UniProtKB/TrEMBL annotation:
The keyword Membrane applies. Its main location: membrane. PROSITE patterns: ABC_TRANSPORTER_1 (PS00211), ABC_TRANSPORTER_2 (PS50893). Belongs to the ABC transporter superfamily. Keywords: Amino-acid transport, ATP-binding, Cell membrane, Membrane, Nucleotide-binding, Transport. It is a peripheral membrane protein. The keyword Repressor does not apply. This is Putative lysine transport system ATP-binding protein. It is found in: Cell membrane. One of its GO terms (cellular component) is plasma membrane. It holds the Pfam family ABC_tran.
Amino acid sequence: MAIIHVQHLSKAFGTHEVLRDIDFRIDKGEVVCIIGSSGSGKSTLLRCLNLLETPTDGIILFGGGEIGGGEKKINEYRAKVGMVFQSFNLFNNMTVLENCMAGSRKVLKKSKEESKANAIKYLKKVGMAPYINAKPAQLSGGQKQRVAIARALTMEPEVLLFDEPTSALDPEMVGEVLNVIKELAEEGLTMIIVTHEMSFARDVSTKTIFMDQGVIAEDGAPEKFFVSPKNPRTKEFLSRFMSA
């Protein structure tokens, strides 16, 4: 059974249809990378998957059941399907450690001691344990994003969504964040990643989805998708972004 199954998903803002009849499924342990031009609907799709946007039509199944149904159920769902944003979304008035403890204290109702131990465990995992007492303003962009990943991991999610996790970073910081995500992929964490890093998508994904004008124009295993795409738009897009 698919861990997430999207069926006939559409999303419109007024008369502007951003997503049209989206269908895909992701199984446990899969890493799905979503690529496409700006305005193709990638981030809106991710925001629908995390219920930050309400779909206009269609359904999203998680573990076989339809998601939604009141704030309590939505919060329970978001604890299982975490999200890492391109702009980090850290609380600037909290330390790194406090940022990573907040969710497990408030949502998972874990004790202060357990939340702290868990936060330190995941901060170590992303190489940010030396900075537990720092505030976000004292960190580089790459460090902030690694903290944001650690914070998402403290919820011990079944699926992790990444919305262009490197787009706000200076080029020299991109690698440190992508390496953390690659390690998570190697450990078998189920992930859906919106990215413009084509070589990363080719190397890390088990399935790649190309979106164009609000629809899935093509999807497939990366070894076929990047070598011999079928859709002319996919070919054109990849020729602009892949040097080989």
